[in-house]
Design a protein that fits this description.
The chain is an alpha/beta fold. It has helices at about 15-25, 65-70, 85-90, 90-110, 145-160, 185-195, 210-225, 225-230, 245-255, 280, 290-305, and strands at about 5-10, 30-35, 55, 75-80, 115-120, 135, 165-170, 170, 195-200, 205-210, 230-235, 240-245, 260, 275. The protein is built from 11 helices and 14 strands.
């Protein structure tokens, strides 16, 4: 197990970062987080006591700051991104400058010996071939601006040595910087509070993965970097290639009063329809530890504690 590395995590206070950073510290690494705290979150408060943790509030596009922080890093994990099609469509300039240009800058500033582990999205597969698994060799066909910026960032990272990328399935689960807009999290939230959801394109399939298992994949990559470098890997639950309707059926097992309706018209803005093979990363010794059902049960407990009422008055 690799220990005592200096790890720079941009966007480290976000949904994935606030789960990953404490796990990196627990493995004996020194971690510096660069984040602009755009959501006013305090998701790293519980690790400020750790002398191996440092945090810088600034922008991942600020070259002077990034250059200074990279100089001390053995591993760079560029999590900073505008994540998801709706957010990227709302700030198209930010999507390109944060998701792509800032990653290219890291590639330019990093020495050949420094390691980069990049999160990509498997939404880059777009609409897959019916009943055919997308592998890492499948053509990338991103449909959204979000997908295009992430696919282009992966291309930039993989053109250098000492890099690898993860093409992440749709992530779910509780996190210190919670996101209710991710598909599983959103559907469970609606099941808990609304007891109903209307599905657009209910037959569209995608793959899912717990946020803690994504963090575990990054730890696995650091520990097995020499064997894994130079490659891209799908990261998802191999038993969770499900349509939106099938996901709702799984949620119903936990919340029997939940109902879902299929809309005859309308489109999902985040177009994804594919099934994914995760056998490549599994062959390296990685296996997820959190099932979809365990994640649904976890989310139900979590939503007893939080309500998405920022813009509600009751």
């Amino acid at each position: 197990m690799a220990q005592g590395l200096n790890v720079l995590v941009t966007g480290g206070a976000g949904y994935l970062g606030s789960t990953l950073v404490p796990m990196l510290l627990a493995q004996g690494h020194k971690v510096t987080v660069l984040d602009n705290f755009m959501f006013k979150q305090n998701s790293l408060a519980q690790i400020c006591h750790d002398p191996n943790f440092d945090v810088v509030q600034d922008d991942c596009r600020n070259e002077g700051v990034v250059k200074r922080l990279i100089a001390k890093a053995d591993v760079v994990i560029p999590l900073a991104a505008l994540v998801g099609a709706p957010l990227c469509n709302a700030d198209q300039t930010g999507a390109v400058t944060i998701n792509l240009d800032a990653v290219k800058m890291i590639c330019r500033l990093a020495s050949p010996a420094q390691r980069i582990v990049l999160p990509n999205t498997n939404s880059g597969y777009g609409v897959g071939e019916k009943d055919a698994f997308c592998t890492e060799d499948s053509p990338l066909n991103p449909i959204t601006l979000y997908g295009r910026t992430k696919v282009d960032a992966e291309k930039a990272v993989m053109e250098r040595d000492n890099s690898l990328s993860f093409r992440l399935a749709t992530v779910f689960g509780m996190s210190p910087r919670m996101r209710v807009d991710l598909l599983v999290n959103d559907f469970v939230h609606r099941a808990v509070f609304d007891r109903a959801v209307v599905l657009f394109e209910a037959h569209f399939k995608r793959n899912y993965i717990h946020v803690r298992d994504v963090a575990r994949a990054f730890l696995h990559a650091i520990d097995n970097f020499e064997a894994m470098k130079g490659q891209s890997y799908n990261v998802g639950l191999s038993d969770a290639n499900l349509s939106k309707a099938e996901l709702c059926q799984r949620i119903q097992k936990h919340l029997p009063k939940f109902v879902y309706l299929e809309a005859p018209i309308g489109e999902d803005p985040d177009k994804r329809d594919y099934i994914v093979s995760n056998s490549k990363i599994e062959a390296t010794g990685y296996a997820p530890a959190h099932s979809l059902d365990a994640g649904i049960a976890e989310l139900i407990k979590g939503f007893r504690m939080i309500r998405n009422t920022q813009y509600g008055n009751v």
